Amino acid sequence: MTEDTQARIDALVKGNDVMLFMKGTPLFPQCGFSSRAIAILDHLGVTYETVDVLQDQGVRQGIKQYSDWPTIPQLYVKGEFVGGSDIMMEMYEAGELQQLLTDQGVAKAG
């Protein structure tokens, strides 16, 4: 794990209101968990950015150390780690994810 990779991850997390590290892209998710995470974000209608960890092994390993979370996808809101797709689903179903996004002032997709 290089400091450059950690700095790059940190810049992505802090530079985007909603940042999802995933396998694949929003149009072509490469795993069911990433697909579910995208479906939740799309349903909520928020603007978000993604990073395809399959395209960058440094980020793929580095994000797990950055968050101390072993799996991908990983969702960050306003620089804070929220969780993976299971946590996103639980929060979404409970209305907590919507509330978090509202509380954080995250913009709706235009």
TrEMBL record:
Keywords from the named record: 2Fe-2S, Iron, Iron-sulfur, Metal-binding, Redox-active center
Annotated ranges, domain Glutaredoxin: 18-82
Source organism of the structure: Sphingomonas sanxanigenens DSM 19645 = NX02
InterPro entries tied to this protein: Glutaredoxin (IPR002109), GRX_PICOT-like (IPR033658), Monothiol_GRX (IPR014434), Monothiol_GRX-rel (IPR004480), Thioredoxin-like_sf (IPR036249)
Name listed for the protein in its UniProt record: Glutaredoxin
One Pfam family hit: Glutaredoxin
Annotated binding of [2Fe-2S] cluster, by residue: 31
Membership in a protein family: Belongs to the glutaredoxin family. Monothiol subfamily.
Superkingdom, natural source: Bacteria
GO function terms (MF aspect): 2 iron, 2 sulfur cluster binding; disulfide oxidoreductase activity; metal ion binding
